[in-house]
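During the no-cost extension, the postdoctoral fellow (Dr. R.K.) reprocessed legacy sequence entries with the updated structure-token encoder. One reprocessed record is reproduced below for audit purposes.
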Amino acid sequence: MRALAASFRPYGWAPSTDEIARLAGLDPVEVLRFDGNVPPDPLPSARPGVIAQRLASVNEYPHGGYGPLVPAIARYAGVEPENVVLGAGADDLIFLVARAFAGPGDEVAIEPTPTYPLLAIAAGVAGAGIGDSAPALTFCCRPNNPSGDLPDLPAARPLAVDEAYFEYARDSAAGLLDDEVVVIRTFSKAFGLAGARIGYALASADVAAELRARQHPAPVSTLSAELALAVLADLPDVAPGLDERERVAAALRALGLEPLPSWTNFLFVPVEGARDLAARLLARGLAVRPFDDGIRLSVRDRADDDVLLDTLARELDRPSPVDAAGGRRARVVRATAETRIRVRLALDGAGRVSVATGAG
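Re-encoded structure tokens follow.
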């Protein structure tokens, strides 16, 4: 087995929801995850019922490809079907691009830094080193994770741009496919299909053909493809999430914190003792992503975000920036093939009842 570089570090997963629940003494449904940068709920079109027909033929391979999905992605992205490469999430495609362009003895440049760690991991697995003297490939995360900013595109070519948060920023390098640019996107973020593991790359026709030739057959499941097709027919409205992001940012500033400007569905909050603060939040069933110089938190919905804000205020010994966020709370989720019912109860709240059916 070929040895990896001494500096190589594999991807580090956060604790599972069940682990956090045991740590906090909660039912797993009461754990709130602010560390995955995904919506609090799937889109209505992604309910399990949409894959019932595919389940009837799950014993079969997707002979001939994925039917209408590739053309649907092409229409959404404003390209031709021959420009589209499917993958098992953006991560799968990042690895595919790294091994297609780089190998042992090559350098891969990564801009900006710090950034999504899987870019360096993919380069390392391909056998390449990290450097910018004569890179065989340059990776760019745009908008960037974990900072949330929108950096300028590097001039280096070939260039692979991770656009996992494209739907929030609406700024893309997809118009540069014929200039040695590959764009990588995912259905995990705005589309709410992180568990389905499906994404796509956009590239010039010849580069896309080369990438497909280096994949294993049928890289995504037919069930995931059916979910992706459903959400493309019912596009997410990210505007409420962006409004909520700004509300949360204002509340954090009221706590004396300074979240960085964001083009995404998350906020990076510089804070001293960030890892200790994250551990204390985890003990209360609230998962954020810790870094040495701050925490990154996903924006969920108002009720969930207020729980985090109120808990942050108590941990920092500051007045809460939200009304009636504390007190006794419980939540229950019931999911079937056709419905998903979530009940959140605040016994010490204001007595409001909010019902959202998802039916428009």
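The chain has a mean pLDDT of 93. The chain has eleven helices and 14 strands. The remaining legacy entries will be reprocessed before the final report is submitted.
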